[in-house]
Amino acid sequence: MSKRLFSVIFAAVLISLSGTAGDKKYGKPLTVDKPTPVADLLANPEQFSGQRVLLEGTITDVCEKMGCWIKLKDGSSASEIQVKVDDGVIVFPREGKGMTVRAEGIVSVTELSEEERVSRARHEAEEQGKEFDKSSITGTATVVRLEGEGAVILGIADEVKSKE
User: Fold this and answer.
1) pTM of the full predicted structure?
2) Phi, psi for residue 135 in degrees, rounded to 5
3) Which of 31, 79, 82, 105 is the most exposed place for a label (fewest CB within 10 A)?
4) Number of folded domains that form the chain
């Protein structure tokens, strides 16, 4: 095998192993190296409140109206966590469902009254074009989410990128 052919093959292998060729970046660059398991975050939300963390998991849902939030789930927990971004700053593609995402931001822990929960649930139902059932919401709740600042969807298809 010639040196030139070997160099071309070697370069192709390195590019395919890099894993970034099809990745799509949103918002600010990621700065945290090690992901925090969702189970750890949800088990001790006060410990993480106000801290910058990196989450990695599968996108299970995307805001249908504005792409202003995603829900992700990792293998550490059966629970999902919402990554909320400022409207218009980052727009997550609806086609991202089922894809792997790395999202970074500040952990927010908020106590919501019953009225606040109803208002938030009504708003989310409107965004998703779903029916809203007020009777399913009773009492207060602690809501834990990531106030997202940056994200990378891994291996997103070129056709999804071109729709943005």
Assistant:
1) 0.75
2) -65, -15
3) 31
4) 1
